[in-house]
Design goal:
GO biological process, one term: phosphorelay signal transduction system
CATH architecture of the largest domain: Orthogonal Bundle
Pfam family, one: Response_reg
Keywords: Phosphoprotein
Number of helices: 11
Organism: Candidatus Electrothrix aarhusensis
Protein name: Putative two-component system response regulator
CATH topology of the largest domain: Hypothetical protein af1432
Helix content: 55-70%
Structural class: alpha/beta
Radius of gyration: 30 Å
Strand order of the largest sheet: 2-1-3-4-5
Length: about 280
C-alpha cells in the first residue's frame, strides 16, 4: 500500500486489537493515514519498512513491552527520531519518568478522552513537521556554507595565480601532490588517528592556501627577475606570516560571505569584494 503524499502516518502499537480500534475511532476525523501492530516485534518489523510521523505505543504488552520496543526503535538510523506517545493504564511517576527518559514525547493514561488524544496527536505532528523542516533548512545552509568555503579558497588561489603564474602553478601542483601523498599514507595505515578520508578531503581543499601569503608581497619583489637582495629575500620569507594573517581574516569573512549569499549582489561579486579586503594591507 503506497503512502499518500503530504498525509502524516500515525502508527498504533497495542496488543489488544480493541484498544487500537478505539484510538483509530478517535482520530478518524483527522486527515491522517494509519498503520498498526499488536506486538513490539511486529511493530519494529513494520516500522522499518514504512517510517511513520508519529507512534502511539502501549507500554504493557507481553513479550517485548513498549519501553523495550522504544529502546530498539532508537537504534534504528531511520526511525530513531520518530516521536512516540506512550499509552498505558499505569500512571506511576516512575513509569512516566521512564517513558520520557527513553525519549518519549508524551504520556497518556488510559482510558483516554478523544479530545485529549486528538489534540496531542495534532500538536506533536505539527512539532515533528516543523523539526523536519528545520533540519532540512539547516542541512541546506550547511551545504551552502561548505560551498562558500570551497569557492573562497579557489578564488584566493586564482588571485595568487593572477599575480604570479609560477605561484599559481605551484599552488595547483601542491594541491595534487598533497592528496596523492595523503591517500598513500592512508592506504598504508599511517597516522590513522588523524588521517581519515574526511581529513584528506580537507587537506586537498585547503592546500592552495599554503602559499597564499605571497599575494601580499610587493610586485617588485614577487615578480623580480634575477637574484633577490638580502632585504628583498627577508621580505619574501614573511609570506608565511602574511598568509597566516590572510587566513585569519578569511575565517572572520566567512560570516560576511554567508550573508552576502542572499544580498542583491551576485555571490561572485561578494567573494571578489571580500578577497580585496583579505589582501589589502591594514592602515
Amino acid at each position: 500500500m503506497r503512502r499518500q503524499p503530504n498525509k502524516p502516518l500515525v502508527f498504533v502499537v497495542d496488543d489488544v486489537p480493541e484498544n487500537i480500534q478505539i484510538a483509530l475511532s478517535h482520530l478518524k476525523g483527522l486527515d491522517l493515514e494509519f498503520a498498526y501492530a499488536t506486538s513490539g516485534e511486529q511493530a519494529l518489523a513494520r516500522i522499518r519498512k514504512r517510517i511513520p510521523d508519529l507512534i502511539l505505543m502501549d507500554v504493557m504488552m507481553p513479550g517485548m513491552n513498549g519501553f523495550a520496543t522504544m529502546q530498539e526503535l532508537r537504534k534504528s538510523p531511520e526511525a530513531h527520531s520518530t516521536p512516540v506517545i506512550f499509552l498505558t493504564a499505569r500512571s506511576e511517576p516512575e513509569d512516566v519518568a521512564m517513558g520520557f527518559e527513553l525519549g518519549g514525547v508524551d504520556y497518556i493514561t488510559k482510558p483516554f478522552h478523544g479530545v485529549e488524544l486528538r489534540s496531542r496527536v495534532r500538536n506533536h505532528l505539527e512539532l515533528h513537521s516543523y523539526r523536519v523542516s528545520l533540519e532540512q533548512k539547516v542541512l541546506a545552509r550547511t551545504r551552502e556554507t561548505t560551498l562558500l568555503k570551497d569557492i573562497t579558497i579557489l578564488a584566493m588561489g586564482e588571485l595568487a595565480e593572477h599575480r604570479d603564474a609560477n605561484t599559481g602553478g605551484h599552488i595547483n601542483r601542491t594541491r595534487f601532490f598533497v592528496k596523492v601523498l595523503a591517500e598513500a599514507l592512508f592506504e598504508l595505515g599511517k597516522f590513522s588517528d588523524v588521517l581519515t578520508e574526511e581529513y584528506i578531503v580537507l587537506l586537498y581543499k585547503t592546500a592552495p592556501l599554503h602559499d597564499i601569503g605571497k599575494v601580499a608581497i610587493r610586485d617588485s619583489i614577487l615578480l623580480k627577475e634575477g637574484r633577490l637582495t638580502t632585504e628583498e629575500f627577508t621580505e619574501m620569507k614573511k609570506h608565511t606570516i602574511y598568509g597566516e594573517e590572510v587566513i585569519d581574516k578569511l575565517a572572520q569573512m566567512l560570516v560576511s560571505l554567508w550573508l552576502s549569499w542572499n544580498a542583491p549582489e551576485t555571490w561572485w561579486e561578494a567573494i571578489m569584494r571580500s578577497m580585496m579586503v583579505l589582501v589589502t594591507p591594514e592602515a
